[in-house]
Amino acid sequence: MSGRGHEEGLKDLTLLGNQNTKYAFEYAPEVLEAVDNLHSNRDYFVKFNCPEFTSLCPLTNQPDFATMYISYIPDKKIVESKSLKLYLFSFRNHGDFHEDCVNIIMNDLIKLLDPRYIEVWGKFTPRGGISIDPWCNYGRPGTKYEEMANYRLMNHDLNPEKIDNR
């Protein structure tokens, strides 16, 4: 067999290939879509680097810019990438702190996918002379992924970045 067919989750997608895509200008978790993971018999990472993430400061409404890194080990579902792009775009006019944004993204993806493991890292550009880079993760409770999450959380910053990486 070559390629994925409609019987493997493609029939449920509404955004991919749609030329009339509507962009949400307010936070819109409902645009997220998932498809079946055809390789749920093994562990593997899916990684997204999203260098054009924007949100707003909840107090001043000034824009905040970040590269959002999302990595997860799927179980039964994987996120469809166009829906993820539209979802992240929906933060454009959303007012929240950096720490809230990464946790909201992680929570929405957990709800959609029920992954074995996930981590979300926002590398925000400096504003006012300081950058904020929140990182959060989750491992399915009672599994080796919970242990992995604890280990990665405790060791995620053992090799601090240099200032020349921005």
TrEMBL record:
Say yes or no: keyword Cytoplasm present.
Answer: yes
- Catalytic activity of the protein: 7-aminomethyl-7-carbaguanine + 2 NADP(+) = 7-cyano-7-carbaguanine + 2 NADPH + 3 H(+)
What is a biological process (GO) this protein takes part in?
tRNA queuosine(34) biosynthetic process
Q: Which InterPro entries match?
A: GTP-CH-I_C/QueF (IPR043133), NADPH_dep_7-cyano-7-deazaG_red (IPR050084), QueF (IPR029500), QueF_type1 (IPR016856)
| Catalytic residues in the record | C57, D64
Coiled-coil regions listed: none
Localization in the cell: Cytoplasm
Q: Which UniProt keywords apply?
A: Cytoplasm, NADP, Oxidoreductase, Queuosine biosynthesis
**Which family does the entry's similarity section mention?**
Belongs to the GTP cyclohydrolase I family. QueF type 1 subfamily.
Name of the molecule in the record: NADPH-dependent 7-cyano-7-deazaguanine reductase
Q: Which gene encodes it?
A: queF
A cellular component term from Gene Ontology for this protein is: cytoplasm
